[in-house]
Design brief:
The protein is mainly alpha-helical. The protein contains six helices and no strands. It has helices spanning 3-16, 21-28, 32-40, 62-73, 83-93, 99-116. The protein is rod-shaped, with a radius of gyration of 25 Å. This is Homeodomain-like domain-containing protein.
């Protein structure tokens, strides 16, 4: 169901049919806070825009990540470092970013290396 349809159904149920907020929540499967927000405002559509997109902190650490990944390529699978282990090694060196940023970067590097060969 679209947001605009939900807003119309909530307002119709409250103003025309005389339903309580609790009944609207149960019948239309919408949270109580959403119902209150719809009834208090004259908006016909609610949207959220992120003001600032934070960037991953891998920028200064790309050389180190590349070094770990390149060292991994020549090793047998039992001796390779996992991405978690690479992340822990980077943390020991002072990296303060997230594991997810490392994982995404390594996946992108791996994808570009596979397409080259």
């Amino acid at each position: 169901m679209k947001r605009v349809d939900t807003i119309a159904r909530v307002r119709r149920a409250f103003h025309v049919q005389g339903w309580s907020v609790k009944r609207i929540v149960r019948e239309l499967h919408v949270s109580r806070n959403t119902v209150r927000k719809i009834l208090r405002s004259d908006e016909t559509d609610f949207s959220y825009e992120r003001e600032r997109q934070p960037l991953p902190k891998t920028g200064a650490w790309k050389a180190e990540i590349e070094h770990f990944l390149a060292a991994n390529e020549g090793k047998p699978s039992r001796e390779r470092l996992t991405l978690i282990r690479i992340y822990e090694e980077l943390r020991a060196l002072g990296y303060d970013g997230s594991y997810d940023a490392i994982r995404r970067y390594a996946k992108g590097v791996k994808g570009s290396r596979c397409s080259d060969g």
